[in-house]
Amino acid sequence: MTDSARDVPESDLIATAVGTGDVDLPSSGRACAECGEPFVPADYHPEQRHCQRACQMRAHRATLGHVPMGTTVTRVCIDCGEPFTFEMRKRPRIRCDECRRKVSHHKRVDE
To answer: Do 60 and 36 fall into the same domain?
Structure first.
């Protein structure tokens, strides 16, 4: 770390490092695992890997295979084995339209 950087408060040091990349991070700082922005972990959570909650959730959704709403998805029907395409909404579909009609019809008849 340069001599001039030692006199700067830690929060200003990080802001400068983000803006220019010329100043070293403090020894307790690290880069966010998701976006790469430098940050200082909270005292009560020294293992912190993400700079903010949004980065943490983005990384979590990526590991789960999250598909954003409105995306067109192709899957294989669990009943007939034929591929089908649908637009992702709240819950992913597991059956094609024809098999969905058959299953929902049987439920109504049995009730």
So the answer is: yes
**pLDDT per position as a tens digit, 8-25:** 455 554 444 444 444 455
Q: Encode pLDDT of 61-73 as tens digits.
A: 877 777 777 888 8
List of the chain residues with pLDDT < 70: 1-28, 105-111
Q: Are residues 77 and 27 in the same domain?
A: no
Closest Cα to residue 23, out of 50, 55, 54, 1? 1
The answer to whether 34 and 63 are in contact (CB under 8 A) is no
Tokens of 61: 């959704």
**Three-state secondary structure call for residue 85:** strand
Range of the domain at 47: 3-64
- Judge if pTM exceeds 0.70: no
Please give the backbone phi and psi of residue 35, each rounded to the nearest 5 degrees, phi first. Answer: -105, -15
Cα(96)–Cα(81) distance, integer angstroms: 9
Residues 78, 53 share a domain: no
The total domain count for the chain is: 2
